[in-house]
Design brief:
This protein is α+β, with helices and mostly antiparallel strands. The protein is built from ten helices and 13 strands. Residues about 1-5 have low confidence and may be disordered. The chain binds coenzyme A.
Length: about 350
């Protein structure tokens, strides 16, 4: 599949790709402004997926296990008409990159999106990452109707994953978590749930890293979903440090199998210290042989207890699940979740030429 030739506006011809240095406000602030304007355009509110410090923390350390290369598109780096990023992994999945692409809302339908997409694909080729996937979220009001559903297929991309966003109002009504916990505990008699805020205790770090390495392979995912990752205690510490630099606290619960003493599951919740209104549920995993014991729910309750104890001014807990992950959806529904949007992943394998081959 190739892109049809199109008439290009004269100003678009002078536009080019710029690599954005997140340490330089003159470059980063205009980049972030386009992202934020796009989020407001989609949502109608000024909700942010990642705050500026969170982007910076993930973009500056090029030696991190995953870091973000930021790009803008326009005549000058100070006045981008489109922005994007490529996630670069160091240790695993080095044949693929996850990207974002946003055109400033008042600059759309002028060919900038197509031009920047091609430029990002060229970058991915240069980086020897022949598989590229663009992530995009849809707010409740545009769910199922986002523009990427038109543009993605036109560009030769395939919808690989659809994750549904659910929000849980916080705090929960008095007694609700106690009720659920006592309902679920009998199934989990062989397990101990432990939880903490901040770094993983040293004695559990190796085991927690082992679980992280199988997370992306064991959790349901799309056709080209992430494969097994390489984690050890050092990478776990690096991950914890990055989260701290992002201005977030990490609240973790694990399930310990009493007979063997092994960790068989974990659940992470994060909350921003400066913007605690929305806390995010990140990964939750119970390894296959230990499923069916209500461990996912009990670990989530344990992280919620940490949030309660911390006194964070949180009003919403947000979680994303693959649309087909029924066990996790049922669990979130029991915890009071309601659907508020979705996130999509559009994937293509890049040919050596200019346009992607659909997968
Ligand atoms: C998707 C997005 C990047 C497109 O940028 P853009 O500059 O408007 O796109 P272009 O002008 O290059 O148009 C690309 C194609 O999509 C079509 N298109 C773009 N917006 C459209 C819309 N709202 N309705 C119908 N078709 C549309 C164009 O007509 C064009 O088709 P053609 O090549 O057959 O003529 C932009 O709308 C955006 O930032 N959306 C929010 C984030 C997002 O969805 N990112 C993309 C993830 S894959």
């Amino acid at each position: 599949m190739s892109d049809p030739p199109r008439a290009t506006a004269p100003h678009a011809r002078r536009a080019r790709l710029h690599r954005v240095d997140a340490r330089d406000e003159r470059q980063f602030d205009p980049w972030y402004a386009v992202l934020h304007a796009s989020e407001i355009d989609a949502d109608g509110e000024s909700t942010r997926v990642w705050y500026p410090d969170e982007w910076r923390a993930r973009a500056i350390d090029e030696n991190a296990a995953t870091y973000q290369q930021l790009y803008s598109w326009g005549e000058s780096i100070e006045h981008p008409v489109a922005i994007g990023s490529l996630a670069i992994t160091r240790d695993d999945n080095r044949d693929s990159t996850t990207a974002i692409l946003f055109v400033a809302p008042d600059q759309r339908r002028r060919g900038h999106g197509t031009s920047m997409r091609r430029a990002l694909e060229d970058q991915a080729r240069l980086l020897r990452r022949p598989t590229i996937s663009f992530s995009v979220t849809e707010s409740a009001r545009e769910m199922g109707r986002g523009v990427s559903r038109i543009v993605g297929p036109r560009w030769g991309y395939t919808l690989d994953e659809e994750n549904v966003r659910r929000d849980i109002d916080w705090p929960r009504p008095a007694g609700e978590l106690d009720g659920l916990a006592s309902q679920w505990q009998p199934a989990a008699a062989a397990y101990e749930i432990r939880s903490w805020r901040g770094p993983t205790p040293d004695a559990l770090a190796d085991d927690r890293a082992r679980l992280a390495s199988i997370m992306s392979a064991e959790a349901p995912h799309g056709e080209i979903g992430p494969r097994r990752e390489r984690w050890d205690a050092a990478r776990l510490r690096e991950y914890e440090r990055t989260i701290d630099e992002m201005g977030r606290d990490l609240l973790t619960a694990v399930a310990v199998h009493r007979p063997t003493g092994h960790l068989v599951g974990f659940s992470d919740l994060t909350v921003s210290r400066d913007h605690p209104e929305v806390a995010y549920q990140w990964d939750t995993l119970v390894v296959a042989p230990h499923r069916g014991h209500r461990l996912g729910g009990l670990m989530k309750i344990a992280t919620m207890r940490l949030l309660e104890r911390g006194g964070d001014a949180t009003s919403t807990i947000t979680t994303f699940n693959l649309a087909t992950n029924q066990p996790m959806i049922a669990l979130n529904d029991a915890l009071g979740a309601r659907v508020t949007g979705c996130s999509l992943s559009w994937v293509a394998r890049l040919a050596h030429g200019r346009s992607p081959l659909a997968v």
